[in-house]
Amino acid sequence: MGFVTIRDVARQAKVSTAAVSQVLNGKGRFSAETKKAVRRAAQDLGYIPDSRAQAMRSDSTQMVGLLVPDLRNPYFADLVSSMETMLYEHGFGALIGTSAESVKRQDDFIMRILGQRIDGVIAVPQGADSSGIEALVSRELPLVFVDRRVPGMDTVPYVVSDPYSGLREALELLRRYGHRRVAYVAHPSLGSFSVNERAQAFRSLAPTYCGPDDSAVFSCDDSAASRQSTIDRILAFKASAVIFGYSPDAIGSISLLRGLGIEIGSRISLVSFDDIDAFRLLSPQISVISQQVQLMGRRGVEILMDRIAAGRSTSSQRSQLVSIPTVFKRRDSVGRLS
Question: 220-234 burial, b for 16+ CB within 10 Å, e for fewer?
Fold first, then answer.
């Protein structure tokens, strides 16, 4: 059998569709026999109420949109998992979409979910020039940004990580272990405010721990050729340690280093942002600067729930900033310089 409709239930219970609707919603005055017949028919047929119709009769759909760049990236998968779990605890479901780091795909997803009468949106935004984001703001739909900021969006609260605390801890340990020449791998082509902020933090902190001429920032993109070129330049720089600001770059580069016969944790020490499962499964395990993604996701949901409970946001509100401190976790990929 396909979808069971309210008409199917009414036909089996031998009552009107209006009677079925009222009985199942606890309304109207009906005999005990009619109520029993309707409920038995609904149970026997496996009837599930149409949530869209219910939403039209209610101010709330108990559904929110979750938008992230890429669910294949373990970091964003962990972020969605933490948010979806907490939404479930609040009695909400989620419509999940990915932007694939594309403003067009982001805008297409937003326009689709706006047609679903959702209660709010949590987004890892892609760029400031977005008609979809502008539509969410102009409609004053409860909206929260996580992981990334959008300059100029003064009415949207956001939850981001503070890269300075974790980077400072990593650089301090590297210095104690004798590392004076440290490279950093940035990914500016991603266009992410947060990823770019990490590179800025490294530039600000590194001279204190490495000396003015013993640290350098190298950039790469998603291609294997770019990552290979970056590794070549890092080795030419004679870095004894490297920090990756974007975990997919670290994963790709680990395999390149191994292909060159370079032992991680011995010949070169390695640290990456994002505490993903893959880094704990590798040998040696990879030291990370954790953004505390579970905490970030929970705080994003808490703010959204508060906004939904308070009603639609207003353009006069200033954004709420929640900054989650990053935490350095040392593992065997960082060793003492002999």
Answer: beeeeebbbebbebb
For residue 190, what pLDDT band results from cuts at 50, 70 and 90?
confident
Residues 202 and 173 in one domain: yes
**Residue 42's domain spans which residues?**
6-49
Q: How many CB atoms lie within 10 A of CB 197?
A: 18
* One-letter amino acid of 168: R
Cα 314 to Cα 39, 143, 155, 310, distances in angstroms:
43, 11, 8, 11
The structural domain count of the chain equals 3
Of residues 197, 180, 293, 181, the one with CA closest to residue 245 = 197
Whether residue 169 is found in the same domain as residue 310? no
CATH code: domain of residue 188 = 3.40.50.2300
Q: How confident is the model at residue 166 (pLDDT cuts 50, 70, 90)?
A: very high
Residue 50's pLDDT is 60
155 neighbors 315 (Cβ within 8 angstroms):
yes
CA–CA gap between residue 55 and residue 62 (Å, rounded): 9
Q: Is residue 56 part of a domain?
A: no
Q: Taking the CA atoms of 65, 67, 70 and 76 in sequence, report the sign of the dihedral they define.
A: negative
* 105: DSSP letter: H
| CB count in 10 Å sphere of residue 260 | 11
Which string of DSSP letters, residue by residue, matches 221-282?
-SSHHHHHHHHHHHHHTT-SEEEESSHHHHHHHHHHHHHTTPPBTTTBEEEEES--HHHHHS
For residues 238 and 268, the answer to whether their CB atoms sit within 8 Å is no
What digits encode the pLDDT tens for the residues 225-272? Answer: 999 999 999 999 999 999 999 999 999 999 999 999 999 999 999 999
pTM comes to 0.77
Q: Are residues 127 and 171 in the same domain?
A: no
What is the distance between the alpha carbons of residues 220 and 250, in angstroms, rounded to a whole number?
11
